[in-house]
Amino acid sequence: MISRRLTLLGALAMVGVSTLTLPALAEPVKLTIWGLDGDNGLIPALAKEFDDKNDDVVVEFRAIAFDELVNEALKAFATNQAPDIICLDNPDFALFSSRGAMLDITDRVAKSDVIKTDLYYAGPLASAMWDGKLYGVPKATNTIALFYNKDLFAKAGIAEPPTTWDQLLEDARKLNDPANNVYGITWSARANEEGTFQFLPWIQMGGGSFKEVNTAGAIKALETWKTMLDEKLASQDVLSQGQWDSTGTFNAGNAAMAISGPWELGRMATDAKFDWGVALLPTETEGGARSSAMGDFNWGIFASTKHPDESFRAIEYFVSQSERLFPEFSNIPPRGDIPLPSTGDAKKDAALAVFQEQLKYAQPRGPHPEWQKISKAIYDAVQAAMTGQMSPKDALDQAQATIKGIVG
Amino acid sequence: MTTRGWTNWAMLAIALALAAVYLFPLYWMYVTALKSGSEIFANPPTFWPQAPVTDAFPMVWETRTMATYLSNSVLIAAGVTAITVILGSGCAYVLARYRNVWIDVGLFVILMLQVLPASVMVTPLFVAFSQLGLLSYPRTAVILAAAAKAMPFFVVLVRATFMTVPRELEEAAMVDGASRAGAFFRIVLPLARNGILVCAILTFMSAFGEYIYSKSIIQTPGLQPASVGLSTFVGPNSRDWSGIMAYAAIYVTPILAIFVLLQRRIVSGLTSGALK
Amino acid sequence: MTRIFRSVRDGIGFDILLIGAALLFLVAFAGVPLIYNVLMSFQQVDMFNLGTFMRPLVGFANYAAVVAQPEFWMVARNTLLFVVGSIGGQFVLGFGLALFFARGFPGAATIRGLFLVSWVMPGLVVGAIWGWILAGDFGVLNYLLKSLGIIQSNIFWKSDPNFSIWAVIIANIWLGLAFNMLLLSVGLHGIPRELYEAARVDGANTWQRFWFITLPMMRSTIGAVLSLGLIATLQQFDLFPAITEGGPANSSMVSQYWAWQASFKLYDFAKGATISVMMLVLVLIASVIYVRSTRHEVRG
Question: Measured between CB atoms, which of C10, C25, C269 is closest to B148?
Answer without folding.
Answer: C25
